[in-house]
Design goal:
The structure holds 2 protein chains of 2 kinds. Helices cover 58% and strands 14% of the residues of chain A. Chain A is α+β, with helices and mostly antiparallel strands. The chains are: A alpha+beta, B mainly alpha.
């Protein structure tokens, strides 16, 4: 990607970013349909099972288009090592019957994109976790949770930040000094430590919905300042322009000038900043859940799934599947960066 | 070397010190009231224990002074904090000031190593870019910036842990430093690369070329000096970011420092310890910003004229 060179490199990067992000949004919307199994259902007989063994050969050994998945068999309960039983297998099928859910929260459905024709032998594309839960299903639901929390958090932080920035940039000196002073203090302090300190003011163990609301609240409280600084600067620059003076002379009220005349003209850089908040919040959510003070088990989040990777013996045996949430996080951040660099460079080149 | 006037220096430091005191007062008050008003403290979990009576818990709280009104407690906390006494940690049962300072040192050394690595990467690559002007190298630099800036510390430090477990690298310190440096290195590289390229278009570079100086000398002696100022601002801000980043890196890799101390304080609701962490972090961030500004003054005399208005 970085070696391709030439004029088209940046737009291609932005396209790749948009494609990646669209993938994430689709996963968030259809997580239930894509997840082959219920993310909370456990099978205690298969803890930390490896990725299912799939074969394209039928019973007689000749090639078949329908893949078969073999039942994993535990060989050592202590080391949790597995082989597979070649005599017991199930057919992989599309639109398989599984647990019931509501698609988009409304349509009741029990079909999933893929699964097996057997209830006993499951297809675990990322293996199972320590409680025998399907890791892929948990990862998909976790992506949905993280994306929703981050988007709402970014929206709130942006709204609060823009509002304070508009007021600070347009109001008198005292209000402006207070707002920008507090904003500078908030920006300079390490947000992770501030979030953690603020987190202690609430009970450490919380039900999922409360935890999600708290996360959104914490992100808003710590994330507004960057937006305020940017908005304030842009307002200060815009308010001296002739058309604003003209509006003021013709008697338009201050709040109307801010919302109807200044805001639309500075919307673009604000939007760019808002997209940059997204990965920061995704990381903050993952970090908090990783430390056990964000979303808690049994609900999956990218962070609390990663906590399993902090187990050294497990990490040595199953590095790839344990680090799969980390790969998801990196891909999401990459997607936002690709879009961001793509579009800012485009603006610079006046190709847009 | 006399660079800036004495009165000006005095004004600058008075302003900085007032700013620092205000920052400390605001953070400590905000943290204290938030943490105390929440109605839970180190003894909250004891309430679930049937063996401990409510009266015993109240007695315990009273012995730590937790039954007094919040304002009074903040007042006495502030009074003893002014004498550098931050109380005792509930969890570790040792003086907070001593504990926090020791852990802060450990993280500060790590942060300096991280900054060192970031500088090494940023300066070397930027220099090579400007010196060679090769397209593949420039594309490679863009690629490094993109990959490094999209690699979050939580991801890098887990991969570092995987490397540590595999036994390929055994130095906890350097693996932590590298995990800490990765996003910072990208920021610094992007910033310095850009400002160095801008500096090469300035008039003084043309003058230097006309004098017949070699290209390497021009870059190292003249352009670097002009390009380093935006990077210095980044340094001031990066100290805070590095302390924040140490939370995840130190917890994952298991290295004692201010980040892992914060996590312990949070898990055990150790409010005196958390207050100590907030204070030390605020002071560190303030000191970092001040240092960056001083360095900028020393490096760029033009700023003096700007600030005079």
């Amino acid at each position: 990607m970085s070696d391709s060179g030439g004029k088209n490199r940046i737009p291609i990067a932005a396209k790749a970013g948009i494609l990646l992000l669209a993938g994430f949004v689709l996963i968030a919307i259809f997580a239930d349909f894509l997840a082959p199994y219920d993310h909370t259902s456990q099978s205690r007989s298969l803890p930390n099972a490896p990725i299912s063994t799939v074969s394209f050969a039928d019973d007689s050994g000749s090639f078949s288009l329908v893949p078969r998945v073999f039942e994993p068999k535990m060989t050592d309960a202590l080391l949790q090592s597995y082989t597979h039983d070649p005599s017991r297998s199930a057919k992989v099928e599309l639109f398989a019957k599984g647990y019931s859910y509501r698609l988009l929260g409304v349509i009741p459905l029990d079909r999933h994109l893929f699964g097996t024709d057997s209830d006993e032998i499951g297809l675990h594309l990322l293996g199972t976790d320590a409680l025998g839960r399907d890791r892929l299903s948990r990862l998909l639901i976790a992506i949905r949770f993280s994306l929703i929390v981050c988007t709402i958090g970014a929206a709130f932080a942006s709204i609060v930040g823009i509002a304070l920035g508009l007021v600070g940039g347009y109001a008198g000196k005292i209000i402006d000094t207070v707002i920008s002073g507090v904003a500078d203090a908030v920006i300079s302090l390490p947000s992770m430590i501030v979030i953690l300190a603020a987190r202690v003011a609430f009970p450490l163990e919380l039900p999922p919905l409360t935890a999600a609301l708290l996360l959104v609240g914490l992100f808003t409280v710590t994330g507004w300042a960057e937006m305020t600084r940017l908005t304030r600067g842009l307002v200060k620059r815009t308010r001296t322009l002739d058309y604003i003076t003209a509006a003021r002379i013709s008697g338009v009220s201050g709040s109307r000038i801010l919302v109807r005349h200044i805001l639309p003209n500075i919307a673009r850089p604000l939007l760019t900043q808002a997209t940059l908040i997204l990965p920061a919040f995704l990381l903050a959510e993952a970090t908090l859940s990783f430390l056990g003070v964000g979303l808690q088990e049994p609900e999956p989040s990218l962070g609390n799934m990663l906590a399993a990777a902090n187990d050294l013996t497990q990490l040595r045996e199953h590095a790839f599947v344990l680090l799969s949430p980390a790969i998801v996080i990196a891909l999401f951040v990459l997607a936002v960066r690709l879009i961001n660099t793509g579009f800012t460079s485009n603006e610079d080149r006046k190709n847009f | 070397m006399r660079i800036i006037g004495g009165q000006f220096v005095l004004q600058f430091f008075i302003r900085k010190i007032v700013q620092g005191i205000l920052l400390l007062l605001i953070t400590s008050a905000a943290a204290f009231f938030l943490l105390s008003s929440a109605g839970s403290d180190a003894f909250t979990s004891l309430r679930e224990n049937p063996q401990v009576s409510a009266a015993a818990i109240e007695k315990l709280r009273a012995s730590y002074g937790l039954d007094r009104p919040v304002i009074e407690r903040y007042g006495s906390w502030l009074a003893s904090a002014a004498r550098a006494d931050l109380g005792d940690s509930f969890y570790y049962q040792v003086p907070v000031a001593q504990l926090v300072l020791a852990r802060f040192w450990s993280t500060a050394i790590l942060a300096f190593a991280a900054i060192g690595i970031a500088c090494l990467i940023a300066l070397t690559l930027s220099f090579l870019n400007v010196r060679s002007r090769s397209r593949p190298l420039s594309a490679f630099t863009d690629g490094i910036v993109l990959v490094f800036s999209s690699a979050p510390r939580i991801v890098i430090s887990l991969f570092a842990l995987a490397i540590l477990v595999s036994g390929a690298v055994t130095s906890v310190f350097w693996l932590s430093a590298i995990s800490l440096t990765v996003p910072l290195a990208a920021l610094l590289l992007a910033q310095f690369n850009q400002s160095l390229q801008d500096a090469m278009l300035e008039d003084f570079v043309r003058t230097a070329r006309a004098k017949g100086l070699s290209e390497t000398t021009i870059i190292l002696r003249h352009a670097f000096r002009a390009a380093i100022n935006p990077a210095l601002t980044l340094f001031g801000l990066s100290l805070g970011a590095l302390l924040g980043g140490s939370v995840i890196v130190e917890t994952v890799i298991g290295r004692p420092g201010i980040g892992s101390l914060t996590v312990t304080a949070v898990r055990n609701r150790d409010i005196p310890l958390l207050m100590g962490v907030m204070i030390v972090v605020s002071v560190a961030v303030w000191a970092g910003n001040t240092l960056a500004e001083v360095l900028q003054f020393v490096n760029d005399k033009r700023l003096k004229a700007q600030d005079g208005e």
